[in-house]
Amino acid sequence: MKTITAFVCILLLAACAGQKEEPAPKPVVEVKVARAEFADVQLSVQAPATLHPREQASIASKITAPIRTLFVKKGDAVSAGQVLARLENRDLVAQRVEALDRARAEAAATEAALAQARKNLDRRQKLFDEGAIPSRELLASQTEYAQAKANYDVAHKYLDLLLSAGQRAETTGGEKASTAFLNAQLEFTEIRSPFAGVVTEQFMYPGDMAKPESPIFTVMDLSVAVARAQVPDAEIAGVARGQACAFESADSPGSRSSGRVSVVNQAVDPARRTVEVWCEIANPRRALRAGVFGTLTLLTGSAPKSVVVPKEAVQFVEGTTKGTVWVAGADKHVTRREVETGGLFKGSVRILRGLKAGETVVIEGGYGLPDGTEVRWTEEKKP
């Protein structure tokens, strides 16, 4: 009996050993897909950018003097040539008044001397014509008159110079040079805006000592905002002055301000391998503010019948235009494929190499799938 039982066990073990295990079925992955299509693409280059004013000036005094009055404050709009501040100038004004009094007295004296010299010359001319005096006496009167006329001209020009604050003397006379300097000093006590704009910074107040090296105000002209961007040198070839551009603030996604490229630098930054580009944007309502960060889009041309896919389909290699897509074949198995891209366009990516129109790509659920993975989907997304 024991022999029979052992024999049966041996037969059962042999039967079990002869059976093969059935392989577990591979899972089917649920994905979303889209079809690569032809489209007319607006070519563009994008780069981070910061807004700057068209003009900016740190306004300081040309002389050292206490600030007497401020006529504007931070945030005020100013016009070109407007007086922003006045420095203490009472000593200079007093010196100028004293100089004016002296000049008026000198002018009056030379005028009287000229009148007397004219009378003497007329009288001696008459006597000479009658033969009553020799020619040397007439010549002496003519010389006296010429000297009186010269003194008169000098005195009145000096007076005119004093009366015209800021006028520069054209002669090298010490007194006139001193007067011109005095007028210039008086002019420098009025701090003026060099252009129309807005006061964006105020560093001093009445009573502070104004100095040439210390700004009192910062004035910016924001009637035109300038978006400055650093564009990679590999993408700069299609960028040129006069092209259309648009700035989108990071604080207001979807809100774009259009302008024109005004500067394309001719030098490449050796450290960053970028080229600086400026885009001027009309800003009549001052809605754009200096210092705002965002994205600058430079419209460089068009490419009809380009192959495009949704941007979600491409896994980019950081810092390059290369990427990877997962292509779903007719048998619904995916293949990983390298592609070369040509920029973004309205949520789509332009494909330069590696993919044909009509092929199906995975846009969700495909990242990291091995080649040959079976997938399924229920609908396709349009690029």
Strand order of the largest sheet: 3-10-13-12-11-14
Shape: rod-shaped
The class by helix and strand makeup works out as alpha+beta
What fraction of residues sit in β-strands?
35-45%
Low confidence ranges: 165-177
Q: In whole angstroms, how far apart are the ends?
A: 78 Å
Largest sheet: 6 strands, antiparallel, barrel
Quantity of strands, as a count: 21
Based on CA atoms alone, the radius of gyration comes out at: 44 Å
- Overall mean pLDDT: 85
Our count of domains comes out at: 4
Helicity level, as a percent range?
Answer: 25-40%
Our count of helices gives 4
Question: Can you offer a commentary on this structure?
Answer:
- There is one protein chain.
- The protein folds into four domains: 29-41 and 303-381, conserved putative lor/sdh protein from methanococcus maripaludis s2 fold; 46-53 and 222-302, Elongation Factor Tu (Ef-tu), domain 3; 57-87 and 190-219, RNA polymerase II/Efflux pump adaptor protein, barrel-sandwich hybrid domain (OB fold (Dihydrolipoamide Acetyltransferase, E2P), Beta Barrel), CATH 2.40.50; 90-188.
- The protein is 26% helix and 39% strand.
- It is built from four helices and 21 strands.
- The strands form three sheets. It has a six-stranded antiparallel barrel with strand order 3-10-13-12-11-14.
- A hairpin with a 6-residue loop joins β11 and β12.
- α2 packs antiparallel against α3 and α2 runs antiparallel to α4.
